[in-house]
Predict the 3D structure of the following.
Amino acid sequence: MSRSDSKHPLILNARRSLNGIKKRLIRECWYIKAMIEKRVSNALIARHSGTTIPSCVLWPNKQKRIYFKNVPRGEFIFEIQHRDSYVAEERKSVVARFGFVTGSRHRKATTEFGLQRGSDGRLFAYMGSGKERDSRFLQSARISIPKFQNWMYVDLELAPDRVVNLEKVRLFRKPENELNIQSAIGRWIERHPSATAATFLIYADIDINVVDGSSIWLSSIASIGCNLGQCILVTKKDVASDIILSNIDRRDNLFLFNPEDMNIAGETLSIKQASEVLRVLDDRLPNIRFLVVRGTDAAAELLGTRQFRGRSVVYLTDFYKLMPEGFTVPPERKVQVDLITSQAAIILTQTSAIACKLKEIAPFPFKEARLPPIIPDALPQVAHRWLNESRGAIKIGYAGKINPEWGIVELLDWTERARKEGYEIELHIVANKISENAGGKGYLGFRNNILSRMRGLEAQHHQTLNREQSMQLMSDMDYVWCWRPPSLEERTLELSTKLVEMAASGARCLCYPNEINKFTLGVDYPFFIRGYDNFRHLLPATTSPSETTGARIRQEHSLSAVKDRLGHEVFQIERREGIRRICFSGHDMKFVHPYMSYLKSSGYEVVRDNWGWGEVSDLARTKLQQEWADIVFCEWGLANAVWHSQNPLAGKKIFVRVHLQEIGDRAKKLASQIDVANVERVIFVSERVRDEAVGLYGWPVEKTVVIPNFTLTDEYRFTKKPFGGEIRLGIVGVIPQRKRLDRAIDLLAELLRRGHDASLHIKGPRPETIEFMRGPSRRAELDYYYELYRRIDADSTMVKRVHFYPWGNDVAAWYKNIDHILSPSEFESFHYALADGVLAGCHPVVWPWAEAKSLYTSRWVIEDTASAASQIEAFRLLPESEREVELQANRSLVESRYGSEHIFSQLNEVLGL
């Protein structure tokens, strides 16, 4: 057949028809295959991606197949959920093998699908280490779907000695940064231009529409902030009612950022989403001096980076649990408390009991200030009536959230019982929320039962009163119910807000006599009750609380008193004159965030100009921030520095800080375009990098200065280690390949060969989980890591002694369990992990990369694997006192050369601040 014949319309139509028939046959074959396997081997079928497969069981040495229909092109995540911690911790315990209708057999399939190819020819992925959420583990694998798939399947294989119940299995589209936070905040600032003067960011994972102690706290801290400056309150939910906001003093100084501002009206901002909002607000608003945050989870998330270092003020009450067996601090909370207390500027504590408990569990001392329950300056005063049997009904009021374990059941029970004994009692209950959960347990039907009982007792239920109106109503009561059961009161560390505000008003507060309440009200307070008999004995009362008690509480808890004290102790606001506006430009601020935060806390106005590695993110915003700034500080000499140096504005000073990658092959094309004539000074973190850059790019030496990286000596506290028994080697960060993980594995093997009990602990992301490591140019590098994994797995002794830990801002706590910190890299410009480990009391073992001896000391540097093992042996044989002297001397060396206070002063001097 000639070429012209092959293009004949009839032939083309026939080919299209045959292709269509072929595709339909393939689809039908897959359908038949899925139906047969569903019947024969219990395969599962999801009608489309996004469907959650219900629970199923993974058996050892058996595959579980899950089919998915109609999977579109795009980036996907395959995820399993279970409760087996062993499976979650072992990277290779679950293998997922994938089959696709089309596209998986050709040579480039591994790149297109982002998967490995196994010896059987199929694409596969290890499910990876799991992340924990509410006692459940989530393990996942990322997949790229290059073409629409009518059908695909996943075969799950389990380690041979396990049986695991999978609670959920799902394939879902990878979120594309679900919320465009940058754009949303840009629009918000355009609507609220005066918010650029805001001093405070405030956040708590609290519903602003529900009246309870936590929302009253939120209005109180907002009132303090608004009296000291402008505040931005990021709310968990959209404001549906003014019931809490109406209590805020100087509300004209308050700006709100709601889910509605993110174009997700009616939804809830998660802690993670809210944290991203707060970070971007801080990037864009130059005057943020303080972040005030309530809650352990929220604070740990926000302090996951050092963006707010020295400016975060954290209020903690939820770090402990009251269990039937007693007071407990869960292990995960202990880890969070360690992180928060090491990084927050100030910890706000409600009571001395909370402060003592935090000091007991925190690894190191921290700064603390007291923030007790706050009451308005203008309190309604109680007009006491002389109660007796002939004066009508006895009024008892309660105001606050209703919870199964907060005493509402006893109030209703005792009221009903007293009425049967002849007492006329009138109940007033102010509550707009009834919770069916308490102490981690659910009480199904509690809400309906309480509402039914309140109707039966003809209680007046007030649901729309704000704090002021609620207090006004309570001031007309004969008694205010503040009683909670002894199971709570004998173990809590907190003071009830409603007890404080009503006792300050002079009300008769029925409450339990625990130690905190006795300290607040006095041991002789006449309205302490333990049970019904005490309650019955007080009906009717013929006494009133001492006026001095109310006066003392007002003096200690009033908004004015607390605001004045915290304004002096915590919220001191500096202002600068002259050069004060600094724009930090770059793609990655992790090495400069503490300095940026220090400048903001010192009164300078600071914003971030966000860039990609090799391109601009928002040129219009870049130009606006450039025009606004006195100084442009380019963190990294990449695309950001190229643009700013080639587009200078008169009177604007440009500084460029160069690390290491700028002299690498990939970045040379960018760094070579920097117009150094328009740069005030190029700041290098090491002499070697400066020498190479000057040689590569011809930059004048007189335009350069070397200021090394800084260390956070107060964050990495010295921990004394026994150095006995197991030798625990540690390495932080093994990407890219020049970090030489193979050398660390060689050292472990050598120590094991010499008969030592040794282990290797690796902190940081695994290369196969990093998006950029899946690119075609990284394939050989990724194979390097897979080869190391195979080496570990093939050694029955070593496989049990290599441990991986996910990345997180808990490195300081991780160092406590590491004896020897390794730096096996081919080259470094500083190596933060080494310096931080030494500060934390680890013994350094450093391979001979350039400048290691001059940046630190030749005493730390070894020549090869054998000398590294020998150095470790020799150090561990030293008397304990000599080891301690050496480790303290190592810490002093790092602190004196690279402590943040010292380096920040050098940066200030170069910038002219």
